[in-house]
């Protein structure tokens, strides 16, 4: 089964095509706030490089977040539109799962952390299991000091991946047991999305396009700003 992977949860936008034989082609770009302009041409380019027509795809995989609201909307909407047009199913994968997956060979606790803006991060913990990683916690929205406190309480060595420790270096510098897995990048990969989604597609762990939803762990900035205007509260720093 051939799968198109769409990744747009962060400032990076990307796509990849692959299947049982692995990833055939992938594309990533990090032009700020240009997900709409980049994604569709990127899909066409990547499919052409892989020698795959859209009507040959068996499923669409998409990063459902958590992440940037605008990027998530672009990716999820594009995935739903393609799935409905091609009449193929969708596999939804979270951005934190994608970040943790490349670290599946480490014995240490894996901590995926994404900058959520407004002084907070999205994060979850993982453990190596045969063939991949297993998530140990819910996807959470916390302040960096709360994350560090919880990790310190475990007494475990951990590898942290994502852009969280770049934005908040105290997540690692404040602990003797933490280390940044810098070699694995700071943003989710569309290639990892295809790798992770393929076995799920084989097991038919699909969601219909009409039921696909982004994973929002908090309200949008527009909703928060609207409430502030109504109450006269000062904006967050």
The gist of it:
35% of the residues lie in helices and 26% in strands. The chain has eight helices and eleven strands.
Q: Topology of this structure?
A:
Blueprint: E1 3-7, E2 13-19, E3 22-29, H1 35-50, E4 59-63, H2 69-86, E5 90-93, H3 95-100, E6 109-117, E7 120-129, E8 132-135, E9 140-142, H4 144-154, E10 158-161, H5 164-167, H6 170-173, E11 178-180, H7 190-202, H8 221-231
Parallel strand pairs: 1-4, 4-5, 6-10, 10-11
Antiparallel strand pairs: 1-2, 2-3, 6-7, 7-8, 7-9
Helix pairs in contact: 1-2
Report on the structure:
The protein is an alpha/beta fold. The chain has 2 domains: 3-95 and 188-229, ATPase, nucleotide binding domain (Nucleotidyltransferase, domain 5); 96-184, 2-Layer Sandwich (Nucleotidyltransferase, domain 5), CATH 3.30.420. The chain contains 8 helices and 11 strands. Strand 7 (120-129) and strand 8 (132-135) form a beta hairpin. The model has no long low-confidence stretch (mean pLDDT 90).
């Amino acid at each position: 089964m051939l799968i198109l992977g769409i990744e747009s949860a962060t400032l990076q936008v990307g796509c990849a095509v692959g299947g049982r034989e692995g990833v055939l082609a992938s594309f990533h770009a990090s032009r700020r706030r240009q997900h709409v302009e980049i994604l569709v041409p990127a899909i066409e380019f990547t499919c052409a490089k892989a020698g795959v027509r859209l009507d040959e795809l068996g499923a669409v995989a998409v990063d459902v977040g958590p992440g940037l609201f605008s990027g998530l909307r672009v990716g999820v909407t594009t995935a739903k539109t393609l799935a409905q047009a091609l009449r193929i199913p969708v596999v939804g994968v979270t951005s934190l799962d994608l970040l943790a997956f490349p670290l599946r060979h480490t014995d240490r606790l894996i901590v995926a952390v994404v900058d959520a803006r407004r002084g907070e991060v999205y994060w979850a913990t993982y453990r190596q299991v045969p063939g991949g990683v297993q998530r140990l916690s819910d996807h959470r929205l916390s302040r960096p000091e709360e994350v560090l406190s919880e990790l310190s309480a475990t007494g475990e060595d951990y590898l942290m991946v994502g852009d969280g420790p770049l934005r908040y270096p105290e997540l690692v510098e404040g602990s003797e047991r933490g280390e940044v897995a810098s070699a694995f990048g700071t943003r989710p990969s569309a290639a990892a999305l295809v790798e992770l989604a393929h076995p799920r597609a084989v097991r038919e762990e699909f969601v219909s396009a009409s039921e696909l939803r982004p994973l929002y762990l908090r309200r949008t900035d527009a909703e928060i700003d609207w409430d502030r205007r109504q109450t006269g509260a000062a904006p967050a720093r």
